[in-house]
Amino acid sequence: MPPGQTVPSTRPDRERVVGASPRRRTLFRVAAALLTLGIFLIDVLSTLEGAVAVLYVVAVLLVARTGRRADIVIAAMAGIVLTVVAYVDSHGVNHVGAQTFRALVSLAAIGITAVLALQHQHAMQRLRGQAMLLDLSHDMIFVRDRGGVITFWNRTAAQLYGWSADEAIGQVADVLLSTRYPEAREAVEAALLEHGSWEGTLEQRTREGQWRVLDSRWVIQRDGQGRAAGVMETHTDVTERRKAEDAALRAQAELAHATRVATLGELAATLAHEVNQPLMAVVTNGEAGLRWLHRDTPDLHEVDAAINRTVGEARRASEIVKRVRAFLAKRSTPRETLDTATLIDDAVRLVQHELNREAVQLRVAVAGNLPPLHGDAVQLQQVLVNLLINASQAMAGQDDARQLQVDARAGAPGEVVIHITDSGPGIPEDHLDTLFKPFFTTKPQGMGMGLAICRSTAEAHGGQLSVDNVPGRGARFRLVLATPIPEGMPS
């Protein structure tokens, strides 16, 4: 290679666009603003008892797509302020009750989602910066004779090492750069002479005393008679890439942790959805007990029954909260041997009041000699409660007889199959594929978490949950639960 010839250096693309385009950012902001306004109007003007304000987390997640921290902060603050305004407008400042708990859950969900969105954005920015570092690949090229004396020194070598061409040419390369080899220098030279080339990683020191890690490639230059006249060395500085790879691994671990923590936002919505049912039952039973107690002649038997139901529902809510806390603490929830008939009977008793109010005719058919189930009784009970209530609500408003059927029978070896069939209008075909996705709902007051939770719970128990339409009947949910494999049978 003639002296003075240089190799063009590469540089990072400074025009790279980070985040969404201005148009997309505007669309996300407008969509989030409209969604926030809609949620606020529903929260203020409607009589819904659910934690409607928790839906502000969706607006926060929308603006997070803009890639701007200010958008996330503004959306979160707007959701928090509007939640407080809606609560004060509806209940005043002195009211304390179930609505207060739902408001606090909503505020926590909004705040946690915003914090996690900011952490996620920060992690992504770090990853983008590290990706740009990985693009910085500077090749240093110099030529030396058989004695190691430098005869050519390109511009990139001058920029990195710190010595100009005039200063480097005539110097012994190993002495000038204090080269450290991965093996004995003699072994490297022997491999070069045997194969005509050598590749490896070595370390060299710059003029400022900095050590650089280099991917090195050596090629023998031969004269007209085929004798080795010199060696051309090409070095790629991988120091920053090594550091970036280590940082990327750390960032990847942090991002994985942030992804796990990001489920807190969904868990807040889950908690609001799951606890809302027993809390509403507590309120209903409490009000019923007060009415029986305030009669001219108090009916203490009914009061006692109402109090017992209230205690049962409160314990159920407590068990749900314990399951969520155990999930966050990475503790396994207790599994036990369960009887299918008992599990179904307990779930039916929890929703019996709802079914009676909606005039639903319930029929339960449990096959005999079903194998025992193994799982978390509260979680599986909550799955059945959700499915029964959804079926009841699907038939609301229809004039025909509202019939709900629960069938349990043995399925494939090691499985129990539970069918819950209603006589409602069924499920639209275009909703069958999205019914179990989080936040998808067809109910004005729904949060879209119930069926997603039910499916994940079934899968966590080694089963599955699916749905189809029964011609002439309505919707049919199919819950498959695994049973313990008897000893001595192949798994």
Automatic annotation (TrEMBL):
Q: Which GO terms fall under molecular function for this chain's record?
A: ATP binding
Lineage top rank: taxon: Bacteria
* Residue ranges of domain PAS in the record: 133-192
Residues forming the Histidine kinase domain are 270-485
Matches recorded under Pfam families? HATPase_c, PAS_4
Q: Which UniProt keywords apply?
A: ATP-binding, Kinase, Membrane, Nucleotide-binding, Phosphoprotein, Transferase, Transmembrane, Transmembrane helix, Two-component regulatory system
Cite the SMART domains for this sequence: HATPase_c, HisKA, PAC, PAS
EC number(s) from the headed UniProt entry: 2.7.13.3
The UniProt transmembrane annotation reads 30-63, 70-88, 100-118
PAC domain mapped to chain residues: 196-250
Which interval of the chain is the signal sequence? none
Record field: catalytic activity: ATP + protein L-histidine = ADP + protein N-phospho-L-histidine
Task: List, alphabetically, the NCBIfam families matched.
Answer: sensory_box
From the Swiss-Prot or TrEMBL record, give the protein name.
histidine kinase
- This protein's species is Stenotrophomonas aracearum
